């Protein structure tokens, strides 16, 4: 294992890796700070850039964007009261309050340092949990992997606030998009309408950038909100030792919740920061300050956010189930480079996995340094007028889609999925569920069919193996729970009315 | 919502079309007892069931929207304009070439979104065009369409 870490360190300190991380973190901070571009969208936009890179550098760059975006999102949350990313929505409450009190620089400093501590703690947790878990995963056969995929999708579906029916339908649309192209078993083309270009399937890059980034551009185009310019004269004031000690309980709460959130797929970081904020308030010695400019109120969600950047990779690397939407983008980055997550990844591609571990450490250090030094240029970019920003994003998406196979069909597909994503978001469906369906579709289908082939088409293979049965039962419970809650609440409303 | 019924009907049609298309999948020669059609058809059946539920269920007040939902209809004219402009860009992309077409597209897009100050637009548009060209064409070695003037 030490040998693997030595290899990983060597890989992560190669000039190209360091450059990839630095570019990733910088873009992450800027992208995260731009309202409308979440960390996931920022990652999706650089996916096409990673094609030509070595796999390890590509993953480090994507992870760097993820880490950087977490701090970037809190910059706008604190300075102008608009969360740059969904995960920083709760940071607005106390962060913006501190800014109004003239202590914005301190809030930024707390966010930066607690984010760094959270991110680093997250990497340690990732390493300590991923290695033993990958051992468990060795006992998994196709039926267990199928059950795990179904559980992952069920968890996403149950996380909805818009009703599980629409979430389920969104997931199905993603799964169906994943079936276009070569049939993984027979090798024949299906759902390609005779187009040779579609034989390779709908690229996940196309699906992800279309559903997330293009739909966001379309959404911004239809709203005529004015662009808030950051006029604040900002600086970062790093916390003193005393202040850091004062927010330690909040950081502990944030670390625990960030870890749990990362382990359970579907929540996507924003849930962790909300719960962390509320729990930190509960356990705080000075809960009355929350909402009135509490440093703990900034520290708890920012720690949780940054822990998730690493902990979401635990289920991804060990089982191939992304723990957050950003991890889903990372998964598609892995697939682009022919890497299959799971226990074999640790054996066959140790350089990539351990390189990513060390790379995440470096990304957090870069976030600390770049976040401190690059605040002003970053604020300058955040003030770019919306029309220019939107046309810039669109150009990146279009050229990125074209660059996949130097083919216009992908550009049409990215536009089409963008329109689909816009309509889904407009009518209460979930693009994130669709993205997860698209990314997990291959794994679910291949393992479903492989399990049945191995058992001679005997469906009992799904309930005779205990782990598989347990996972499937968990999936059924998670799927039915929201339905039961809905019926119970409706019953209560009826009783109240009568 | 009434729109749910329309969406349900559209999804039902989609499920039917997808199911029908699954008949075009050739049978496998390899030993596969389940066959290549079972999984896609299962998805189609689930989608159809979900669509029927969506159509049949009681209209209910909108659930609280999640983070990335778009709550208001917004300016559909600008959306149509954006899609038309982008479609034109894609149609002309290979014939007109990246360097010639992109500044026109970006400039028109920014103008469509109501940005009228021409000097920052020209600067930003040229800078963006060049930056993306350098990153993709030069750094990543992607051959972007050259257009009619370069041979």
List the helices and strands and how they pair.
The complex is a heterodimer of chains A (498) and B (151).
Chain A: H1 2-12, H2 15-33, H3 39-46, H4 55-80, H5 91-100, H6 104-137, H7 142-158, H8 164-178, E1 181-182, E2 189-190, H9 204-222, H10 241-246, H11 248-263, H12 270-283, H13 295-311, H14 313-319, H15 325-336, H16 343-348, H17 350-373, H18 375-382, H19 386-405, H20 408-426, H21 431-454, H22 461-464, H23 466-497
Antiparallel strand pairs in A: 1-2
Helix pairs in contact in A: 1-17, 2-3, 2-4, 2-17, 3-4, 3-9, 3-15, 4-5, 4-6, 4-13, 4-15, 4-17, 5-6, 5-13, 6-11, 6-13, 6-14, 6-17, 7-8, 7-21, 7-23, 8-21, 9-19, 9-20, 9-21, 11-12, 11-13, 12-13, 15-21, 19-20
Chain B: H1 2-21, H2 38-56, H3 76-96, H4 98-112, H5 118-139
Mean pLDDT over the full residue set of chain A: 85
Strand tally of chain A is: 2
In terms of DSSP E residues, the strand content of chain A is under 5%
**Mean pLDDT level of chain B:** 83
Number of helices of chain A: 23
Query: Low-confidence parts of chain A, pLDDT < 50 over ≥5 residues?
Result: none
**Fraction of residues in H or I helices of chain B:** 55-70%
């Amino acid at each position: 294992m030490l040998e693997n870490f030595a290899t990983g360190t060597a890989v992560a300190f190669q000039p190209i890796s360091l450059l990839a991380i630095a570019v990733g973190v910088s873009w992450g901070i800027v992208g995260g700070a731009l309202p409308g571009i979440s960390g996931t969208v920022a990652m999706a936009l650089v996916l096409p850039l990673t094609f030509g890179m070595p796999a390890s550098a590509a993953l480090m760059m994507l992870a760097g964007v993820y880490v950087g975006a977490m701090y970037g999102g809190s910059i706008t949350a604190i300075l102008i009261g608009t969360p740059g990313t969904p995960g920083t929505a709760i940071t607005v409450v106390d962060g913006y309050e501190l800014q109004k009190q003239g202590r914005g620089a301190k809030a930024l400093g707390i966010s930066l340092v607690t984010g760094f501590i959270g991110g680093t703690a997250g990497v340690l947790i990732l390493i300590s949990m991923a290695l033993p878990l990958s051992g468990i995963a060795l006992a998994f056969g196709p039926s267990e992997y199928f059950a795990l995929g179904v559980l992952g999708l069920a968890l996403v579906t149950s996380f909805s606030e818009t009703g599980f029916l629409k979430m389920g339908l969104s997931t199905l649309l993603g799964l169906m998009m994943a079936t276009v192209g070569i049939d993984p078993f027979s090798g024949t083309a299906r759902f390609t309408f005779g187009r040779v270009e579609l034989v390779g399937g709908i690229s996940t890059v196309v699906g992800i950038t279309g559903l997330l980034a293009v739909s966001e551009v379309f959404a911004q185009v239809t709203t005529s909100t004015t662009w808030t310019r950051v006029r604040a004269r900002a600086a970062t004031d790093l916390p003193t030792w005393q202040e850091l000690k004062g927010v330690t309980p909040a950081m502990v709460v944030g670390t625990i919740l960030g870890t749990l959130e990362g382990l359970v797929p579907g929540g996507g970081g924003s849930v962790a920061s909300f719960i962390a904020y509320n729990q930190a308030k509960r356990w705080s010695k000075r809960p009355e300050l929350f909402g009135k400019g509490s440093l703990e109120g900034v520290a708890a969600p920012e720690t949780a956010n940054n822990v998730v950047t690493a902990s979401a990779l635990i289920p991804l690397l060990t089982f191939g189930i992304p723990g957050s939407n950003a991890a889903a983008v990372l998964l598609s980055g892995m697939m682009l480079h022919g890497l299959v997550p799971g226990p074999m990844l640790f054996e066959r591609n140790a350089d990539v996995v351990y390189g990513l571990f060390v790379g995440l450490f470096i990304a957090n250090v870069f976030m600390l340094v770049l976040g401190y030094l690059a605040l002003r240029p970053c604020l300058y970019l955040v003030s770019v007028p919306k029309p220019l920003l939107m046309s810039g994003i669109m150009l990146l998406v279009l050229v990125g889609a074209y660059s996949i196979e130097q083919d216009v069909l992908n550009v049409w597909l990215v536009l089409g999925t963008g329109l689909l994503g816009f309509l889904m978001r407009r009518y209460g469906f979930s693009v994130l569920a669709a993205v997860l369906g698209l990314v997990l579709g291959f794994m679910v289908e291949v393992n479903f069919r492989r399990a049945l082939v191995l058992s001679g088409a005997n469906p009992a293979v799904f309930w005779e193996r205990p782990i598989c049965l347990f996972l499937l039962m968990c999936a059924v419970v998670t799927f039915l729970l929201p339905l039961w809650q809905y019926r119970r609440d409706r019953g209560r409303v009826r009783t109240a009315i009568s | 919502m009434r729109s749910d019924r329309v969406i349900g009907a559209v999804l039902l049609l989609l499920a039917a079309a997808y199911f029908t298309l699954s008949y075009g999948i050739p049978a496998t020669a390899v030993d596969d007892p389940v066959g290549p059609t079972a999984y896609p058809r299962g998805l189609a059946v689930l989608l159809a069931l979900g669509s029927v539920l969506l159509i049949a269920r009681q209209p209910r007040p909108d659930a609280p929207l999640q983070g990335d939902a778009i709550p208001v209809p917004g300016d559909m004219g600008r959306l149509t304009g954006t899609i038309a402009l982008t479609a034109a860009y894609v149609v002309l992309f290979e014939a007109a070439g990246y360097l010639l077409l992109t500044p026109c597209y970006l400039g028109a897009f920014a103008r469509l979104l109501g940005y009228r100050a021409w000097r920052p637009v020209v600067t930003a548009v040229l800078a963006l065009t060049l930056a993306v060209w350098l990153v993709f064409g030069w750094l990543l070695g992607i051959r972007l369409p050259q257009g009619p003037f370069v041979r």
